[in-house]
Specification:
This protein has 338 residues and is of the alpha/beta class. Helices cover 33% and strands 18% of the residues. It folds into two domains: 62 residues, Phospho-2-dehydro-3-deoxyheptonate aldolase, domain 1 (Alpha-Beta Plaits); 260 residues, Alpha-Beta Barrel (TIM Barrel). It is built from eleven helices and 14 strands. α3 packs parallel to α11 and α6 packs across α7. The radius of gyration is 23 Å and the shape is elongated. It binds phosphoenolpyruvate and manganese (II) ion (MN).
Length: 338
């Protein structure tokens, strides 16, 4: 960290800053210029924060010089990390597709969805049992029964399962049903206690981007998980809020190459919650794969019109199958497969 002193800062003020740096276990490097003094804090500056120095007398501003995330940073781990989700590698040369309904509804809906997802060529199945709904009066998900339905429908097709965890108190139950990848939704990206809990288990985590989160905040959220020992983290861009109201969210395609550069961890894209309309899903999916996404999370329902949640954005199994064919061509064009 560098602390820039105001022109005319006195010796006592400089010494107070030095003392604070030393008290945190770092060493000090002072550079006295003609106009102002710069104080460098040398060591692991992650324990320091500009807030510690900015209010001190004589300080103009202070700033970090290294990134605040470490375990997730490509800087410290050059190779791509490939995460094994129950035998399906995510982050390798193959682009993986996760398909399934927004929410688990009935045994018939789930078995038709599982067949559709498998037949289309996707390798993993999604389905929400615990739903974060804007309205408390809306369907909240089937809960544990939903986990059971998802697990058994997916098992008949040999598909690993992905489902959202909203409450750390359900984590044991998720492990009991052997959820293969735990999804942290956009609304919980900065639920730090929840992140710490999934950081302690040995299950891949799909970390969705907060709808108003910066790239840095998203990476820091992943670092919360990683610091607990769980490094199997998959980032999922799902659209961000902007001034635009013509579609649900704006798919931030730029985030894909930026994140791939910043982190060694896989990056997938959810085109369904980004556009919010089924007809937008193919275009957004192609864009995501072309931009380098390692996978897609797509909502698929055997009968979208009757879906209990996010009906307008679900693909039918046959639309999903057509899309996978198109995506395969896009993936091949950039030297990957699908
Ligand atoms: C979902 O995947 O069904 C979901 C609720 O996603 P998000 O957290 O991105 O809104
Ligand atoms: Mn949904």
């Amino acid at each position: 960290m560098i602390i820039v002193m105001q022109p005319g800062a006195g010796e006592a003020e400089i010494q107070a800053v030095e003392a604070k740096i030393l008290a945190h276990g770092l060493s000090v490097h002072v550079s006295r210029g003609t106009e102002r003094t710069l104080i460098g804090a040398v060591g692991d500056e992650r324990v320091l924060d500009p807030e510690m120095f900015d209010p001190m007398p004589g300080v103009e501003k202070s700033m970090h010089i290294v990134k605040q995330y470490k375990i997730v940073a490509r800087e410290w781990h050059r190779e791509n990390t490939v995460i094994d989700v129950a035998g399906v590698p995510i982050g390798g040369p193959t682009v993986q597709v996760i398909g399934g309904p927004c929410s688990v509804e009935t045994p018939a809906q789930m078995s038709a969805a599982a067949v559709g997802v498998k037949t289309a060529g996707a390798r993993l199945m999604r389905g929400g049992a615990f739903k974060p709904r804007t309205s408390p009066y809306a369907f909240q998900g089937k809960g544990v029964e939903g986990l059971e339905l998802l697990r058994s429908a997916a098992d008949t097709q040999g598909l690993p399962i992905v489902t959202e965890l909203m409450d750390a108190r359900m984590l044991e139950t998720f492990l009991k049903y052997d959820v293969d990848a735990i999804q942290i939704g956009t609304r919980n990206m900065q639920n730090f206690d929840l992140l710490k809990e999934v950081g302690r288990v040995n299950k891949p985590v799909i970390l969705k981007r907060g709808m108003s989160a910066t790239i840095n905040e998203w990476l820091m959220a992943a670092e919360y998980i990683a610091i607990g020992g769980n490094h199997d983290i998959i980032f999922c861009e799902r659209g961000i809020r902007t001034f635009e109201t013509a579609y649900r969210n704006v798919l931030d395609v730029t985030a894909v190459p930026v994140l791939k550069r910043e982190t060694h961890l896989p990056v997938i894209v959810d085109p369904s919650h980004a556009g919010g309309k089924a007809w937008m899903v193919p275009a957004l999916s192609c864009a995501a794969v072309a931009a380098g996404a390692d996978g897609l999370l797509v909502e698929v329902h055997p009968n979208p019109c009757d879906a209990w949640c996010d009906a307008d954005q679900a693909l039918t199994p046959s639309e999903f199958a057509v899309l996978i064919g198109q995506l395969r061509a896009v993936a091949r064009a950039i030297g990957r497969d699908l």
